User: What shape does this take?
Amino acid sequence: MIFICIHSTIYIKLIVLTHLVTSSRHTNALPYPASKQTRKDTRMTIYDVSEKAGVSIATVSRVLNGSSNVSAQTRQKVLAVIEACDYTPNAFARGLGLNSMNTIGILCADSSDLYLANAIYYIEQELRENNYNCILCCTGYQLEDKQKYLNLLVNKKVDSVILVGSNFISDNDTENDYIRDAAKEVPVLLLNADFDCENVYCSLCDDFKSTMQATTYMIETGIRDILYLYNSKSFSALRKLSGYQSALTQKGIPLRMEYIQYFPGSHANLPAIADFLTDLDSTVKYRAVVAADDNLAIGAVKFAHKKGLTVPGDLSIIGYNNSILSTCCEPELTSVDNRLETLCHHIVKTLIGILNNKEMPQKVIFSGELIKRGTTL
Assistant: This one.
C-alpha cells in the first residue's frame, strides 16, 4: 500500500499520488520506511473527512479533484480538515477522478433467480458500454456471507458496489451496518431496495403501489376472494404484501389470514408450488391469486390445469415481474412490469454520474405497469 505526505496544496498531493501509483507498478520498494507504513494503518477515510468538515462526501471529492463547483469557504474548510488529520486519498478518492480502477463490484443473492439474472445482464451491458469491468459475487441469503463478499469487493479496490435485490436490506437495522461501513469507502448502489444512508443510492420500483393497483384491478372484475401467494420476506416482498392488504382495505373487504399464504419452497420448483396450492384447496376457497412473482403465478396456472379449472373463468391469476415466463404458459400470464431494464439503466447512469463527480439523486422510484393477458377477466 502506498502513502504520501500532505503537501501545501491538495493538487500537488494528487500529482504525487498519481506518480507513486504509477511507479509502484515497476518496483517493490516502499516509498516510506516500515514505521511510517504502520502509523498509517488506521488512516482517515473520505467519510471521516466529510463528517469532520460538515459537508457531503461528494463535496470532499470535488475538493480533492480541484472542481470549481465548490465555494472558497467550503474548500478551505475541507482542506483544513485534510491537513489537520493527515488524510491521504484512498482508492475511493482515486475512483472519483484520479486513477479509477474502472471496476464495479456486483452482489446478488442467487444468479439462478430469473429476476436477478436479468438485472445482472442489464447492468453488465450498461457498464461495458461505459468502459467499466465487473466482478460478480453470489452471496446466498445468509448475513455473514453478504458481509464477507461486500468486504471482499471493497478490499479489492473497486470503484463502487451495486447490490442487486432488496434482500440485502434487513428489518433489523443493526444488520445493515455492513452496508454503512462499505459506503464510507465507496459509493453503494441498491437496485430495488430503499435505504437511507450517506453515499448510498437507490433505484426502485414502487412495489406497494404496483401490487395495490393489480389487486384493485382484480377486485373491480367482480372478484373478492383473492389469495396472496409469496415466498420471500425481503423488503420488496413485504411491500407487495402491504399493497395487497391496502387494496382490500380500501375496497372494504375484510383481511383474512388464510388468504395470505407463504410458500416455503424454491421459486424454481413449479410442480411443488402447484402441489402446495392443491393441499391448500381442501381448506381455503378462493377465486383469484395475486402472486409476488411470475414463478409463483405459473405454479398457480399449473394447479388450475391439474384441478381442471378454467383460467380465468374459474381462477384468475396475476404475476409480478413480467418475465419471459409470462408468455410461456397457456393462457399467457397477466403480470406487473416492474420496469427492471429501466431501473438498471438508471442505476448505472447514477453510478457514472457519481464517479464523474456530479450531484445525483439518492433515491428514484419508478411506477410499475399491469400488463393484461389471458389469465384475468
